[in-house]
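Bug: token stream looks shifted between consecutive jobs. Job 1:
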Amino acid sequence: MATESLPDKDLVMVSKPKISVHTRIFMLIMFFTWSLALVFFALQYSREVEFKTEVLDSRLQMLNIRILDHLEKEGSVTPQFLKEIGANDSLRVSLIDFSGNLIFDTNGTHVKENHSNRQEVLDAIAKGQGYTKRRISSTDARQYFYSATKGNKVVVRTALPYNHTLADTLKADPVNSYLIIVIALLMTVLAWFATYRVSRSVKNLRKFVEAAEYDDIDDYDTKRFPNDELGEISAHVVNLYKTMKLTAEQRDKNLRNAMFAQAEKDRIKHQLTNNINHEIKTPVHVIQACLETLENNAEALPEDTKKQLIDTAYDNVKRLSLLLADISTITRITDAPEKIECAEVDVAEIIRTVVAEMKVYSPEEQMRVHVEVPEHLPLKGNPSLLESIFHNLMTNSIHYSGGRDVIIKLKNVSPDYYVFTFADNGVGVDPEHLPRLFERFYRVDTGRSRAKGGTGLGLSIVKNAVAFHQGTITVRNREGGGLEFEFSLAK
């Protein structure tokens, strides 16, 4: 039962209407605005009533002083005098001694009640003057406004009946109240527009979050935000999110590329291992077969057969040695290029050295080498790898081109690179083979390549050595016949 009631509770929570930021801020400002207006209205009302009360008391105090002055001169107060000073029939005048006894009262002196406990009398005796805003008279049961002033011997007290006229006089002016209400209403309108402007940034941020949730922020315009501090912060948040998104996408892309590169590296290593195993098996089996034949039939074999077997084993040992050397070179370039040392070298000198080494070939295998390279071409690189570039290209031309001439030429020089071409005038290769010539162990003619003692790694070494020197290499068939390699080497 408990588990069934949870969805209903969640449904109620989800369906509960949300109060917008604009409404919340507006209601909060309205609470403080109208609270302040009410407090100000109450203070203003009380101050105005107090002011009008003090004005009325001052007027009565002036009458009291005139009565005291007359009393000092004449010794008594007559109705005629009261009329002369403007005291009408509604004004009540009383004379009270300091003991609180009523000496004279325009309503009659028959009242014997002691007045020492009247607040206005107490204040007048203590402070010189005092008033009571509203009190019912014990004489005629009417409400009066009393004002008392202390003289040398008596206290003069005047009183006005608290009727509708007097009540209206002492009321606060409604114009001030209307003014406060108008100001509060104006503040309400201004607050609505101000909070709407502030909430606009929040609304736009909310729309941005919704767009970000669906990954649709590429075209989001930050000009939607108002031109203020909050709008600037909101726009900065949006731009920061976009930057983080681009950074995350670039990171993911780099990670995918790294994973792909690692997978490709593992694939190449696996392929290389399989190819190495395949390439090594042939010379090993040949060497093993030759040695087993010599060991088991040493006495029965003729001398020329023994020599042939030994020569065959020796040739395969040399082939195996070359294969291991080439594998070592490729492994060094691809797996640990940072450990390969570089120094200032002269490429022209390396080319001359490679050309001189070609003299070890028989006259039938030697080729005419045409070098169109300046005397001095300095760059920073690895001497052995640079030599392997020209050596393997030269060996490839001698063994497989079928031509008689090789042209080594410096084609172009830029501030950062040397660009070389290496061409022969042989038969070239079929176009379908060109894209794969730099693959490891790839041979155009498998039987002929093995017969020449090739390992299938020469051109792959060339490509990797050029790449180590921050260059690129391409190959094409020449129009007049043969292959032309074009490659660059960074200075």
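Job 2, same session, no restart:
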Amino acid sequence: MKIGNKIKELRMMKGLTQEELADRAELSKGFISQLERDLTSPSITTLIDILQCLGTNLKEFFNDAADEQVVFKKTDYFQKDDLELKNRIEWIIPNAQKNMMEPIMLTLEEGGSTYPDNPHEGEEFGYVISGSINIHVGNKVYKAKKDEAFYFVPQYTHYITSKSGAKILWVSTPPSF
């Protein structure tokens, strides 16, 4: 099994030179160099020492779990149409409710709106992609149009309406959609 490249990636992620890793693991720089090029293999004890210096262990190092998805395509989106409120919500990062923030694409038809959201801890951010919207925060109404952004701390009941229709990117933390 070739492990050299994986060790090199871990070393570089930690910002260590081969010499620094060698010093920490009490090995020679030449050994680390050969190991990273798969020209030599370490004993289990030596590998454990190297991995400990890199902040990991054998179990994590050899875990072949798939990398977490970073890029999401339109086919990954999850969509919900609300005929009553005349809106469509597209979760552009599936399962984002497990994260600190939840970005969605919100499309409001003419006369569309969102349900009022009660005050909560966190933040709300949005960017108007097309159309114009009214952002209702407490008893105040703010207007935003294409290429404008909004941000507020949701201390009051809040919702969005659009008389003419709009598409916005909306990011909420903690997730509330």
